[in-house]
Amino acid sequence: MFRLPVGKMLTRLAIITSRIMRPDDANIVGNVHGGTILKMIEEAGCIIGTRHCNTQTGDRCVAALARVERTDFLYPMFIGEVAHVSAEITYTSKHSVEVQVNVLSENILTGSKKVTNKATLWYVPFSLQNVDKITEVPPIEYFSPEQEEQGKKRYEAQKIERMETKDRNGEVITPVSLPEPYTVGFSQSSLIHLVGPSDCTLHGFVHGGVTMKLMDEVAGIVAARHCKTNIVTASVDAINFHRKIKKGCVITVSGRMTFTSNKSMEIEVFVDADPLVEAEKGKYRAVTAFFTYISLDKDNKPLPVPPLKLEGEEEQKRFEEGKARYLQNKAKRLADKEHKQ
Amino acid sequence: MFRLPVGKMLTRLAIITSRIMRPDDANIVGNVHGGTILKMIEEAGCIIGTRHCNTQTGDRCVAALARVERTDFLYPMFIGEVAHVSAEITYTSKHSVEVQVNVLSENILTGSKKVTNKATLWYVPFSLQNVDKITEVPPIEYFSPEQEEQGKKRYEAQKIERMETKDRNGEVITPVSLPEPYTVGFSQSSLIHLVGPSDCTLHGFVHGGVTMKLMDEVAGIVAARHCKTNIVTASVDAINFHRKIKKGCVITVSGRMTFTSNKSMEIEVFVDADPLVEAEKGKYRAVTAFFTYISLDKDNKPLPVPPLKLEGEEEQKRFEEGKARYLQNKAKRLADKEHKQ
Amino acid sequence: MFRLPVGKMLTRLAIITSRIMRPDDANIVGNVHGGTILKMIEEAGCIIGTRHCNTQTGDRCVAALARVERTDFLYPMFIGEVAHVSAEITYTSKHSVEVQVNVLSENILTGSKKVTNKATLWYVPFSLQNVDKITEVPPIEYFSPEQEEQGKKRYEAQKIERMETKDRNGEVITPVSLPEPYTVGFSQSSLIHLVGPSDCTLHGFVHGGVTMKLMDEVAGIVAARHCKTNIVTASVDAINFHRKIKKGCVITVSGRMTFTSNKSMEIEVFVDADPLVEAEKGKYRAVTAFFTYISLDKDNKPLPVPPLKLEGEEEQKRFEEGKARYLQNKAKRLADKEHKQ
Asked: What is the mean pLDDT of the segment spanning C1-26?
């Protein structure tokens, strides 16, 4: 009954994982957290990526998350539904693996099913002997030359973007005393988390999915503080994981609102890692990302979002940048829609 | 890539779930707890059982675990390995569903795979409108009349066994002051657990898998206290879930050693439920079971087990009963082996 | 309340963490467990303490919890609220660090905020090279000589108390067969827990917060068994952590009621550690503490508590001691109140 794919196919297809959504996976009204879904996506990606990179002789290695492409949350998922996560390797370069992951929600009471997410992740294999050595990725076979060509284009595009974001660092969130409602200072939030063993890979590095779950948690608090309603993750912009985070670090995850449209909010989230014990290494910015949230009424219909009150030039500048991202994504969605018709 | 089985097959096959084993799933030397595996098995069974029972019109329902057949742990599983759990419906009677579950461990670094467990579970569907009403199970299609016939035999056999164990209740574990090493009193242990939301189904009843995980936890502590070495679950005798346990109950899980052979220990585990707030309902025995443990050295080879020191007729009697179960299982294993040759 | 640090101040102030309270953090009616809050408090304390003690050259170290001063739970917290925990170093001696932690609950829907807890914790740094070596603590800068002087007084006072409690050991909880309602034997409870990787610091020692959470869990079950209503933690007396508990230990946490007033119950909790595999070390009493619980009706108003039925001189003696603690705390609360007016 459990038939494993034969030969070469084994490493490409074949990760499907299913899990019932529990109360702790969701918010108070039963909507599953975006972070829960991101964590499941990354876990499937890590399994298939690590498996693939170990299908040749040579150093044993672990696939570490390097980047997640922009991800949309198409439908909300609820407590009691079953999430089916399937992952497939779609492209390999010399040192990286592209994994595409689909998430399907199934209501096992009514039988209804919906594709809730499609995500693309990039992994890089690190040697288990030497955590700073990147190993080589065995090539996959493509169904057609076009398929390989398109993969190569995606690979090149993300490579450029990763380079560009490498230096967007340094900024910190400064708390404000007695902030006014609807200002940036009012809703900004941060959490700290001491990295534990279950957060980590075999290497002792934090799973990308664990980091993304914490980021979504902070972004969700920021969004809820701003609009005081039931809020859900609508999308996450591309996230680059520039530096690994090690076991024993304390991570500080901070979020602030950057932009509001009529029905959405954009929240910028920073992750700073602090190797407590190896203090000489110093704190560093490990990840940054933009999360978009929407506010829902009791029937899961979008509600208007109170506009963000801006204070100072910095906030104005970030708002304009957020608006540009918003308009660009809107245009892209429209183009995709037309393309399909 | 995620192709769902067509038509009627959908409800029979189709649950596969994969998860990396983490430090919290395992003991201090890296052996995954038997309880972790039992919990994954039951989760897959509950998904496929609930899905199947809702494929017809009428009351929506949840499949509740009624019985797990004797389960052997064929090979140990380790942190970092991926557990693949697949579940299939193999028989249906008017009010119950038989699910067969296989667990496969995969070392994603070396690619090696092993079947570690095969389990058979029986579920009964309860209406969501009325938690005391058992709903009807839609029939499955069989590949052959023989298949159906064999299923029916298994169904009848377990039904008789469930009846027989229904009244084996009442006994309690009485603590001993200053017990001698290797006596029953020395290693007996118990824990209490306040049932939380994540332990429960949509009905607010404890998942059978949660109960089994707690039972394995107590049995493991009894075994470790007895032989002070690395111990692992070797098998679990058939477990019957006579009464459901509700959210808000305190459950007391108690274990005591009943029998030792040269290389194995048998531990009897009781689960008592105490509906704290609805005190008028009173405490009741919800489940009992026998776990068999073995002791392993550093190379995962079985070690001799110190013989149990018996005190009193009761302990002697339980030892003899344990020995009978041990010899019966041994004979059955030998018969199965010859049958295969 | 959230003042963030400049320069040198960094190591003194500066830990703020926010987390949404989830269903598993709370009891069946939505009240967050006192143990959940104690665990968050200790995690923040451990982070700031460890960070501070590693700000100088020399051995890398981990701050281990030595003592928590008496802690009151001023208001209940609920699922869906955000807990903000802030920690600050307020005094350092040669070998210990005092951390003050405030917990604020925020209802993000209404915006209302309440200070729910103020706690004072003492940490001692242990070398990572040699777990039995206590390292030196770098001094902090004080705002004024008075501030330092007051800190020194607190330090001396807790030192004396820690000495005094060092020998209050040995007692065990003996189960009673067929106990009558409202007696000590009726509600007494105990649990065992196998220490797992996520319970531990980098050293492989159990986090103080994990121990306190288990203690609160047992105390809560004792209180619920006694009065069969919704109960919440009202306060915890000073807790001293005399001996560390290591990974792989089994801990037994036992609780019994010692005293009841009209509207409160006092529960004594013991923690015994049993280093299973290193059996030559033997079992030892690791921690003891007194928890005070109150019983709440549906509107979160205090209910009368059924009086404890005492049996024997021992129970009578413990009741009197409990009463003395109760009256002392009451007097102290009144004095504090007058002082503020």
From this structure: 62
C189: three-class secondary structure by DSSP: strand
Separation in Å, CA of B194 to nearest CA in chain C: 8
User: What length is written for chain A?
Assistant: 341
Strand partners, C61: C127
How far CA A108 is from CA of A83, A210, B207, B219, in Å, comes to 10, 27, 16, 34
C-alpha to C-alpha distances, B110 to A50, A52, A95, A222, C269, nearest whole angstrom: 10, 10, 19, 44, 48
Helix runs in chain A, H state only: 9-12, 34-53, 145-165, 184-187, 208-227, 312-340
CA–CA separation, C21 and C36 (whole Å): 9
For an interface test with C, the pick among B22, B193, B194, B296 (most C C-beta atoms closer than 10 Å) comes out as B194
Query: Is the C-alpha dihedral spanning C298, C300, C304, C310 positive or negative?
Result: positive
User: Closest by alpha carbon to A33, among A25, A22, A41?
Assistant: A25
Give strand pairing partners of B105: B83, B114
User: Where would I find the H helices in C34-105?
Assistant: 34-53
**How many alpha carbons fall within 13 Å on the CB side of residue A322?**
25
* Dihedral over alpha carbons C175, C179, C181, C182 (to 10 degrees): -50
Partners of B198 on chain C (C-beta within 8 Å) are 23-24
What are the phi and psi torsion angles at B38 (to 5°)? -60, -40
Nearest partner of C203 among C233, C164, C244, judged by Cα: C244
Q: Which other chains touch chain B, taking contact as 3+ CB pairs less than 8 Å apart?
A: A, C
Q: Identify the CA nearest to C12 among candidates C91, C73, C68, C66.
A: C91
* ipTM score assigned to the predicted complex: 0.82
What pLDDT score was predicted for residue A169? 57
Q: What are phi and psi of C320, to 5 degrees?
A: -65, -45
- Structure-token match 């029916």, residue found: B152
| Cβ neighbourhood burial of B74 (10 Å; 0-12, 13-18, 19+) | middle
C198 to A196: CB separation less than 8 angstroms, yes or no: yes
Q: Please tell me the least confidently modeled range out of A54-63, A288-297, B300-309.
A: A54-63
What is the widest separation between alpha-carbon atoms in chain A?
63
Active-site position among B25, B31, B117, B216 = B216
The Cα C175–Cα B269 span in angstroms is: 19
Cα-Cα end-to-end distance for chain A? 39
Q: Are the C-beta atoms of C287 and C255 separated by less than 8 Å?
A: no
Task: Output the CA torsion sign for B6, B12, B18, B24.
Answer: positive
What is the structure's pLDDT at C211?
A: 96
Confidence band, pLDDT 50/70/90 cuts, at residue C71 = very high
**Of B122, B117, B94, B102, nearest to B15 (Cα)?**
B102
Q: Are C218 and C269 in contact (CB under 8 A)?
A: yes
Task: Write the CB contacts of B341 (distance below 8 Å, at least 6 apart in sequence).
Answer: none
Cβ burial, residue A93 (10 Å; 0-12/13-18/19+): middle
Q: Is the Cβ–Cβ distance between A195 and A246 less than 8 Å?
A: yes
Q: Which pLDDT tens digit goes with each residue over B263-302?
A: 999 999 999 998 877 766 778 889 999 999 999 998 889 9
SS3 assignment, position A12: helix
Residue in B313, B273, B266, B285 with CA at minimum distance from that of residue B172: B285
Output the DSSP codes for A57-97.
SS--EEEEEEEE--EEB-S--BTTPEEEEEEEEEEE-SS-E
Residue A128 to residue C322: CA distance in whole angstroms: 57
**Rounded distance, CA B203 to CA B303, Å?**
44
In the residue annotation, B169 being an active-site residue is answered as: no
List of long-range contacts for A152-158, beta carbons under 8 Å, 24+ apart: A152/A91, A152/A93, A154/A91, A154/A98, A154/A120, A155/A91, A155/A93, A155/A96, A155/A98, A158/A67, A158/A69, A158/A122, A158/A238
